[in-house]
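Appendix B. One record, verbatim.
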Amino acid sequence: HTIVGVVSDAVYRPQRAGVPPTMYVPWAQKETYSTFSITARAAGSAEALRQPIAHAIRRGDPDVSFSFRGFEDQYHASVVQERLIAWLSTFFGVLALVLAALGLYGVTSYMVNRRRPELGVRLALGAGPGDIRRLILGRIVVLGGVGVIAGLAISLWAARFIQSQLFGLEPRDPVTLAAAATVLFAIAILAGWLPARRAARIDPVIVLRG
């Protein structure tokens, strides 16, 4: 073959594959063929190009069957697997987050109920509702901080195992890890706030009588 020019790199349907080695040859010089594609960029409406392209193809070979497909449709079809994995990961991630929040809320409520006599004595000796809330939330902050740090460490270690499933994102992306840690810590504080608020409203007289 005689090389007559070099064109820019192009990414085709498999987005993960990157730029494949490609050679373009004149249509008349191809030995065998079954399918081919023509890509056209429209300066205005894409619909206006369909009739001239169809006319040119039929004039070249009336027996050729063809169809039109928009670039957006082709792009979405090329990342359908990535979208499915992303939706499934999001679903199970949200489910795990909700279960963790419910579990933390249940454990904190159980702890508050077990410590009702102690909290009643603290209130009777002069502790205010704010002190009780800080006491309960302080424990949540410690547990949440330890959990977030342990989760980040495990995520950094396990990132290499999911690297092949990521596209356009580093497995140890600092922004993603920081956002996940912030959300988890905020959920932990929110799950502990309700039991802490309820503990601050304990009537010391009723508790001590009991």
